[in-house]
Amino acid sequence: MPFEFASPESVGIPSSSITAFIDRLKTEKRNVHGFMLYRHGKLISKCIAQPYRFEDKRHVYSISKTFTGTAIGFARDEGLLTLGDRLIDIFSGSAAENISPNLARMTVHDLLSMTCGHSDGAEEDMMRASDGDWVRAFLAREVPHIPGTYFAYNSGGSYMLSAIITKLTGLSMFDYLKPRLFEPLGISGVTWDTCPKGINVGGWGMHASLEDILKIGVLYLNGGVWEGKQIISRDWVKLASSYKINEYGYHIWRKEHNCFGAEGAFGQIVIISPDKDMVLALISEDNSFNFLYNAYWYTIYAAAKNNMNTYRMESRFRDVMTADDVLPENLNDLAILRRKEESFAAMELLCGSYGSYHGRIIPKDQRAKSVQIAINGDISEFTVSFRDGIVETVRAGNGSWVRNHFERFPKDQIEYLAVDAISPVSLGACFKIEGDKIYLNVQCTDSPHGFRYTIDLGECVIQKTRECPGSLTEKIEFQLEK
Predict the structure, then answer these.
(1) How far apart (Å, rounded) are the C-alpha atoms in residues 92 and 87?
(2) Global confidence as pTM
């Protein structure tokens, strides 16, 4: 069921504090694509930047890990495993004959808490495994630290948790979660990348909507209860969200103000605030996590009326404890907020100068052989011939975003840790012409990533900049054919 939408004042938050949050993001030039704010059982603010839509399923990177940790929670609740189970017992046929003492000690707990004993992440080594056996590649790695004592963020360990679910149930982790989590929460259309053996990658690769990730936050806020039903045990929620090491729990980060939640690369955030009975889900392409959190702490969080602790109490007490939080409605401030939400933007929508142009450029680039440019008024087409034989046409609008979808596209040029170099990609594009320069903005709608291109037909140079703040501009020379 969709969330009930209400005014911020009805749940004890001034509309002006959310407006201040939006203004702070813009003043600090944070590249936020959208957010949803939930309190006391209601959705009170939501906004999305074009060309995104609320229903878009985009790569949420390491927010995937919290869903993976939740799968382990279900398996524990069902008695399929214990947190003390050793990897070498679960995968007895995949480890080398000579098992090191530290590998022999590694447990499910160690994977969940990022203390498996590796010095760094194992995922890139696993992805390079010539036989596609990521489990064997993980178990073959040196384990220099005693498991449970050394924190090293490790998406490879998250993959192993997914592999454990598959080993114990015969199901992919996605299929295991479907009746237990996705269907009860009304989450559909989610996809999850897999390794060559068909195992969900666990630590990343999940494509979900903004509302989908808000829902996992609400589930944890409510102690595992969803619409009055205990979906996952309250014991697991408390255990997973409690401090283990280095501000980390079980695939959940601990934060200031007794908050906890999920994080994904490039600024994907679910922040659960039990003392305020509140969840913020935010998507962006901005790695400045501290700035994003501070914007929340000093505006919305600071202004939210009263304190409580929801995930450690019985949900039936919520109505009693929140009854006095209602503030007088402020229709003027609410109207200002709703206008800010409606006009929320991230990457610039290019518009204004346009005309006609037809030409072909030959980039001095490793990936593209040529780009055929055809501009007719307020619509342009950029037909890219890639060196591996793929030819795709990106359509762009002047003063409007044109959404494109490609079944075969070089995704490894766009996305970090792309499991498949060639796979489906969705994006929006807009353009304008000024003199001998063509400006093209491209925003992927199935991931956080955006790119700005300036095609200088006079200097025969393309300037390419990632939309993520602080990214360097790449210059690509080309030859011009007309």
Answers:
(1) 8
(2) 0.95
